[in-house]
Amino acid sequence: MDLHTQTLTELQGGLDRADFSSVELTQALLDRIARHGEKLNAFISVMGDEALGAAKRADETRAAGGGGVLNGLPIVHKDIFCTQGVLTTCGSRMLENFVSPYDATVVEKLAAAGAVVLGKSNMDEFAMGSSNETSYFGPVKNPWDLERSPGGSSGGSAAAVAARLAPAATGTDTGGSIRQPAALTNTVGLKPTYGRVSRYGMIAFASSLDQAGVITRSAEDAALLLGIMAGFDERDSTSVDHPVPDYVAGLGGSLKGLRVGIVRQHFDSGLDDATGKAVREALAVLESQGATLSEVDLPNLDYCVPTYYVVAPAECSSNMSRFDGIRFGHRAEDPEDLLDLYCRSRGEGFGEEVKRRIMTGTYVLSAGYYDAYYLQAQKVRQLISDDFKKAFASVDVIAGPTTPTPAFRLGDKTDDPITMYLNDIYTIGANLAGLPAMSAPCGMVDGLPVGLHLVGPHWAEESLLRTAFQYQAQTDWHRACPEAYR
Amino acid sequence: MLARLRLADDEFSQTVDKLSRIVAFVDQLSAAPTAEVVPMAHPLNQVQRLRPDQVTETDNRDAMQENAPSVSGGLYLVPKVIE
Q: In chain B, which residues have their Cβ closer than 8 Å to the Cβ of A301?
């Protein structure tokens, strides 16, 4: 029986029927990681012994009639989530040897539900990147074409799920870091509403934009995991106390009467023709399922990327100030004095993109530039948020492409930061406005996957998941697997 | 100096070039129609939550200091600051 091809929900059924044990399942996936993990560079830490130990305990709990919803099901954590007793590097030399003294809330909740953690996935350094090329541990390769990027920053999570090394993985999304890699690897990526999932123990990049989510192979699995991860956490000051619905139960409704908004600018010249065609075909499927399509306007859409590249670096520069070479993290050898210790520890510990964002952020926050850049960006952010609010008065979901093109070649966009930044043009708006959004597989262009992007109003995860689930009931794109990993 | 970063000599010129491009790119924000707009403070318009002023954390110093590059007797060691 091919355990690696099954979704989390299918595996859950198999464990319940005792078709196989969690130890067998975990070992099968660890074997696959041993075979493919290095080639893809998807992992920073593989937790073989810990995983088998947890699987054994899960099997015992099950035999005794107990266990949580995810009992014995293997997952992967992005290396941005703190895991007690295991390395948490955040893809950086700065944290190369960092072992967290506590678990992130997301890690804690999934463990309490019985999940078995196979390892920690590779990522762009401190989640700052859209191609996984900023990782100190080297780029992740896209399982669909090893010369291409899997996207970023949750590229290791996406590659591991796409290559069937794990049925599901956690990720984080500040400007598209779950949805863009999901689109480029033919996986499902969900970024919940800001405040839906706790950020406690998730290493901060831009705190007003960061949100934890999941990468899976079906909308159903995303619903299953979100139900466990979501909820109020007093340890996260921006966590919101909002009821958590039963996301799996919510998948069943029909799409009849669902109002889907299309943004004309999403299909302008910036979009690759074949990608656009695949997305239009997906929209036609939704229409055939009873959804109504109508055009909506987001007049300030073009300002999303520049707004993000003021707000995110500003918050980054503030968050990164905690890395001082004294309390934790990399420390330079033989410092001349305290200032030299700070400057060299940070200069050596951070990679190029992180340094660039710290400097950009420091600049836009500095006296004399604050009003023109940071304050202006926060005003434009309000305009963008208002645009979405107006649009959601007439539609339930906004649908379009997740990325302008399928996966690009590694090295193609590293020379020009702006070209790289523009890759997130369709995804950034949801972060700026704190909205839930997801990407689901919807086609192939020259053997490379295309993602359908869905954005909803605050707390509308249910309607996004239902839309994707019903679309997946009608189509097979999400089942496509790169040949070498079947 | 503000960012407390030392760049290697070979990083310098390309950093300047790329930063200039980023600043030029974000400069387009000045054209946005923001005259009457109040800057966003929180994506969901939430206010910062308050909690009772009570001690909730226990002493974790030893566990925390396991990650420190240089400690002694519970103190963090740094280069001499006062001559």
A: none
